[in-house]
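Objective 1b of the project was to move from sequence-level analysis to a structural picture of ligand recognition. The entry below was assembled by the postdoctoral researcher (A.K.) and checked by the PI before modelling. It contains the amino acid sequence of the target and the SMILES of the bound compound, 2-acetamido-2-deoxy-beta-D-glucopyranose.
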Amino acid sequence: MGHQIADLISSLIRSKMSNTNGPSLLRLGVIVTLAGVISLGVVFFWFSPSNKCPPPVFRPVQYSQISSAKTNNSLTDKAEEKPVLLLWVWPENYRFDFSDCKTFYNIDSCQLTDDRALYNSADNVIVYHRAITDLSNLPPSPRPPFQRWIWLHLESPTNTKRIPGLENLFNLTLSYRQDADIPVRMRLITRKKPNEDFVIPKKDKLVCWIVSNKDPSTGVDTRNVFYREFSKYIQVTLFGKAFSRFLGYDDYYPTMASCKFYLAFENSIHKDYITEKLNGPLAAGTVPVVLGPLRRNYESFVPAESFIHVDDFPDPKSLAEYLLQLDKDEDAYRKYFNWRKHLTPSPHLILQRQEFILAICTACDYIARRREYKEAHDLYDWYFS
Ligand SMILES: *[C@@H]1O[C@H](CO)[C@@H](O)[C@H](O)[C@H]1NC(C)=O
Ligand SMILES: *[C@@H]1O[C@H](CO)[C@@H](O)[C@H](O)[C@H]1NC(C)=O
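Corresponding predicted holo structure:
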């Protein structure tokens, strides 16, 4: 605290020095600033609670602080109310700034940290499934009695390793699954007033597909088989690592927007496993052609008439014929965008290192609202069922 004020004063002096308007004006400025900062500091010391640090170790103390915060006596008490969310490891080592939750999703309701020294006071701990090698790199036991462990995993069952011993260890699940305790998903936003101004972006390509992964072990066989047949009947423009045609991050949305249709083919087929592959084309102003779970599963997240499902057709050839026909029928094509009057898609973050921001911020939002006791049993029975 003392450090911070001293730093503030010296940085203020430095910044005053660097834009001199005349020596006397400068001196006056420094004096006024110093006086202001010092009195602010005094006021702050007098009115801030004395129990700022070290962090409390035993939870009941914090709960009593929460009830005293209800008297609204200071802003710092409000901050103390925020539950601590400890990120045990950075998923895939993709680090980001914790303030991104506020920046991107306006979520600011927990205190995120990656500092394991706060373990004993952490209300919740996120454990990333893929980083668990065996039980030895989990957080230590016994855990504080108030603490909840959150299982973070975004891959589908096809791409999930069963690590024995995790079945009855967690309190909350954080996953793409709708029946997870904390489901993670980009959602369309309902508009208050209908939007009549949406303009379909200019198109110079018919069907596009960005693919980074061709590895059959990840479950991509279904989509590869479908694609091989489909591409006999219609021109598809390919991008991505799998075809050595890399697309820069800045080109992702503009490229997608320039295609009439986009192949939103999931790598493996599981209920609710509907990823950013669908959100991308919707956000860009393109019609997604989806391959994944059943149509009605998609319809629980996005309007029925916002996408084309490969299951709507008896075979890849009929799908190709339908797209070619839509290409010539502007009015029929335009109908795929009617939903935009009432719903707005939001572009998702596309940098690789941003992959887990939405999930972690969603957890932050959840734990501040829902603080009850919870146990998640038979993790794999649930996940693989
Ligand atoms: C504290 O402030 C909130 C809104 O800022 C208000 O709704 C609440 O009634 C206040 N509580 C007390 C005890 O004054
Ligand atoms: C969290 O789950 C574990 C394992 O089921 C359980 O022992 C613990 O009491 C739970 N804690 C809370 C705070 O929900």
